[in-house]
Amino acid sequence: MARREVLIDAYNVMFAHPRLGPLLRRSLEQAREEFLILVSQRLPGDGTLGIVVFDATRDPSPPTTKGRTGRTTHRGLQVVFARESADAWIQQRIREHDDPASLTIVTADREILETARAHGSATMRVSEFLQLSSRRQKRMREIRSSEKPEHQSTREIDEWRRLFEKPREEE
What we know:
47% of the residues lie in helices and 18% in strands. The chain is an alpha/beta fold. The protein has a single domain, classed as Rossmann fold.
């Protein structure tokens, strides 16, 4: 079974965020840094690989170059600066992945969503992704406020199992 991956169309999500969208216009690097913090807080701690894809063409660089390209690791995330565009990079990753069903794609881009669905990848709306942390925090407050929950739904039990299961070793 392939390791789960979440591919995030960075600027697509950032422009939808109420604070980061406006910050992008003032300070690209600060907005990116805050976004990576936000993403690292929203990904599950179950070994899922987070891949944040930026358009390299948005990177301010000397006039003799085309912007930053390549990959780096930051806050446990893989950060990709796509040479062409983030959209093209994500679509290629979906098409070429050995197990596209192990991918979750976070974007509002229609073409990327169509590619993901055609290859059996899961999709997550930008609004859902941005609300993940607040739902987790609310849930933790609810759990802490009662000594012992009176009843747990099947969904809650599944969530706890997912959180505490050991990651399966790759074969």
